[in-house]
Write a structure and sequence with these properties.
Largest sheet: 5 strands, parallel
Number of domains: 3
Number of helices: 23
Helix content: 40-55%
CATH architecture of the largest domain: 3-Layer(aba) Sandwich
Strand order of the largest sheet: 2-5-8-1-9
Number of strands: 11
CATH class of the largest domain: Alpha Beta
CATH superfamily of the largest domain: P-loop containing nucleotide triphosphate hydrolases
Radius of gyration: 32 Å
Distance between the termini: 68 Å
Bound molecules: adenosine-5'-triphosphate, magnesium ion
Length: 495
């Protein structure tokens, strides 16, 4: 029998969401745009499928990158963002237009992979920090107690004997103290020892009392002086325009290693001290090498780069005169999308299986204005539809934490019950649509400006209102907004 191309060591598919499920999840936040949701769901699932193939085939299967085409405010970024959160993949959104060709001032394209790695590192680090939280809390508590109620000097070291200097320095093992032979008759040394032991017990008892108080939260506001690690990051950032990143790899770490880890005394409330100390303790407990390798593995196998405004770099030299950077940037992006190795300060990161989702309005250019190689790397094209009035209605009310729910909740914090009637929502949607038509189509973003204006007076007066329940109906909406909507010049500025 032939060797199967499927490895089943680790069945990634069982853990991965099905395309149906992905679309279902996206539906909770994004209205319509079914085609786009479907494409990204397929792309994601295919990546999970790839991971199950035998290794030699795995490397052949390239991710199916996507271009989302649609005018502004129709949900392109929103889809990508929700998607990333859904799969908990390392995700970064970058504007293609902010990159410049290598050799020109600006960000070089490889920085997107470095940034992506950075987000993965901090994600994994946060996870690990949570995992060691209990231990870190305990250690921080001990240190905090040391600061609040320091071990008295007399208990810190053994009393010095005359010929002490000649002896080996004695181990400071307190448990051994208890086992010293005490039955040798009155012995000044033993007596001193006994006194010390009493003092020790007293100290520990009080320390425990402080511990109880700490846990009960009775000391939270009390000031305490602690030593905090103080990392100097001198002058590097100032003289490089692109920040440290440009100056490559381990510059920052290098500096941190050269400069001694200085500590600084700070006087802070106990509550803050606990946080600071916990952070320090957590850092000691985390294995940074493991964090780095886990993060890099996630970036390489499930990272998503969202390349926004790709249309802004479309267009070829000939058409746009001396616009050096456009095609140049495309040429620079190409190897990253095709698969190359980018050096980051955490090590090499392979980009071969990173998923790229590009998006753009493509009003003046079209995907065919991209250089052919890049077009080939984005085989999936989906168009997002412009939103109409009924989409607006749904967007206002249906998604989890939809706009209307947000505004109601905000007013609730002031003890005001606001009811927004159906016909009010109709009216808001209609007005938004109207302004988009007459002034400029900014998609669902128009709903934000309209809602903000609609609630302006309420938000201002809310704390002083006598009446604690309010109904917002179509009448109310018209009263607040129709003057502005009718006047194009006014709308241009206000809505
Ligand atoms: N189909 C939709 N369903 C729900 N909310 C939407 C939808 N489209 C847009 N929105 C909302 O409108 C706002 C803008 O959407 P988004 O950022 O996705 O626009 P975009 O398509 O990326 O536009 P641009 O081309 O300007 O970047 C967001 O707050 C988003 O929640
Ligand atoms: Mg966007």
């Amino acid at each position: 029998m032939e060797k199967s191309n499927v490895t089943d060591e680790k069945n990634t598919l069982t853990n991965a969401l099905t395309p149906q499920q992905i679309v279902g999840e996206l539906d909770k936040y994004i209205i319509g745009q079914f085609e786009a949701k479907r494409s990204v769901a397929i792309a994601l699932r295919n990546r999970a499928r790839r991971q199950m193939l035998a290794e030699d085939m795995q490397d052949e299967v390239a991710p199916k990158n996507i271009i989302m085409i649609g005018s502004t405010g129709v949900g392109k970024t929103e889809i990508a963002r929700r998607l990333a959160r859904l799969v908990e993949a390392p995700f970064i959104k970058v504007e293609a237009s902010k990159y410049t060709e290598i050799g020109y001032v600006g960000r070089d394209v490889e920085s997107m992979i470095r940034d992506l790695t950075e987000t993965a590192i901090s994600r994994v680090k946060t996870e690990q920090t949570e995992a060691v939280e209990e231990k870190a809390r305990e250690a921080a508590e001990e240190r905090l107690l040391d600061y609040i109620f320091p071990v008295p000097r007399s208990l810190q070291q053994r009393p010095r004997l005359q010929d002490d200097a000649l002896e080996e320095p004695e181990e400071e093992d307190d448990d051994e103290l208890l086992q010293l032979p005490f039955d040798l008759g009155p012995d000044p040394e033993a007596e001193a020892e006994e006194a010390r032991e009493k003092e020790r017990e007293r100290y520990l008892k009080t320390r425990e009392r402080f511990r109880d108080w700490l846990r009960e939260g009775r000391l939270e506001d009390k000031p305490v002086e602690i030593n905090v690690k103080h990392q100097n990051m001198p002058f590097v950032e100032i003289f490089s325009p692109g920040g440290i990143e440009e100056m490559d790899i381990n510059f920052k770490d290098m500096f941190n290693n050269i400069l001694p880890n200085q500590t600084k005394k700070r006087r802070v409330p106990v509550s803050e001290a606990r946080t600071i100390l916990m952070q320090e303790e957590a850092e000691k407990l985390i294995d940074m090498d493991a964090v780095i390798s886990e993060a890099i593995e996630r970036v390489e196998n499930s990272g998503i780069v969202f390349l926004d405004e790709i249309d802004k770099i479309a267009g070829r030299e000939s058409r746009h005169g001396p616009d050096v950077s456009r095609e140049g940037v495309q040429r620079d992006i190409l190897p990253i999308v095709e698969g190359s190795t980018v050096t980051t300060k955490y090590g090499a990161v392979r980009t071969h299986h990173i998923l790229f989702i590009a998006a753009g309005a493509f009003h003046v250019s079209s995907p065919s204005d991209l250089i052919p190689e890049l077009q080939g790397r984005f085989p999936i094209r989906v168009e997002l539809k412009s939103l109409n009035k009924s989409d607006f209605k749904s967007i206002l009310t249906e998604p989890k934490n939809a706009l209307v729910k947000q505004y109601v909740a905000l007013l609730q914090t002031e003890g005001i019950d606001a009811e927004i009637t159906d016909d009010a929502i109709d009216e808001i949607a209609a007005l938004a649509f109207q302004v988009n038509e007459s002034v400029e189509d900014i998609g669902a973003r128009r709903l934000h400006t309209i809602m903000e204006k609609l609630f302006e007076n309420l938000f201002f007066d809310a704390p002083d209102l006598e009446k604690k329940s309010i109904t917002i109906d179509a009448e109310y909406v018209r009263a607040e907004l129709s003057e502005i909507v009718k006047d194009q010049d006014l709308s241009r500025y206000i809505l």
